[in-house]
Amino acid sequence: MLWPFNHFRKPRNPSRGTIEAIYGMIVTQAREPLFYRDLGVPDTVNGRFDMLVLHLWMVLRRLKSIKDSGAGVSQALFDHFCDDMDANLREMGVGDLAVPKRMQAFGEAFYGRAAAYDLALAAGAEPLAQALCKNILNGKEIEHARRLAFYVETAVACLAGLDDAALQSGSWRFPSPARVSVQQ
């Protein structure tokens, strides 16, 4: 008789389609025109990268709280982000020799911002606004940063309220940033 030792196997990797769906939601939300038009985010390659990193951080932060399968989904999502950044660099004409150095810079930017946002979120709305102002708004327009911080707090709360299975399946949406344009 064969005994199932499923508990010795690695956690199942999420499907590629699910990761693509979650990443697609992150990219779509990061490109929301309101961030650039009404909240002062620079509509530049760097500004769009910063918004992508912000939304990826929020989702990865929530996925970390899921026991067992959260780590696998987080890793697959982060790997997809890295693959996307690599493809974008190559599409922009960055040479093969420069890509690894640029990818390292992307990784450092992500981890630096994630650490700053984690600390700031734990410290409250004003520290979060300061971190967003520094990292996304080039140290300018603190009022826009405060409204962006309100959006982040709302999105983090919405993600925290999601059922683990719904989060991992990609059957959810970010909150609309439209309500922050009238907040405060």
How would you explain this protein's 3D organization?
- There is one protein chain.
- The protein is mostly helical and 184 residues long.
- It has one domain (14-176).
- Helices cover 66% and strands 0% of the residues.
- The chain has helices at residues 16-30, 33-37, 45-63, 70-91, 99-123, 125-135, 142-160, 164-169.
- Helix 1 packs across helix 3, helix 3 packs antiparallel against helix 4 and helix 4 (70-91) packs across helix 5 (99-123).
- The N and C termini lie far apart (67 Å).
- Mean pLDDT is 86; it is low at 1-11.
Secondary structure: elements and pairs:
Blueprint (H helix, E strand, L loop, with lengths): L15 H15 L2 H5 L7 H19 L6 H22 L7 H25 L1 H11 L6 H19 L3 H6 L15
Whole-angstrom Rg: 18 Å
Tell me the β content: under 5%
Enumerate how many helices there are, as a single number.
8
Question: Largest sheet at a glance?
Answer: none
Taken from the alpha-carbon principal axes, the silhouette is globular
**Unreliable parts:** 1-11
* Structure class: mainly alpha
Order of helices and strands: HHHHHHHH
Mean pLDDT: 86
Q: Count up the domains.
A: 1
Topology, number of strands:
0
The portion of residues assigned to helices is: 55-70%
Oligomer: single chain
The span between the termini is 67 Å
Key features of this structure:
184 residues; mainly alpha; disordered N terminus; globular
What is the compact description of this entry?
This protein is mainly α and 184 residues long. Helices cover 66% and strands 0% of the residues.
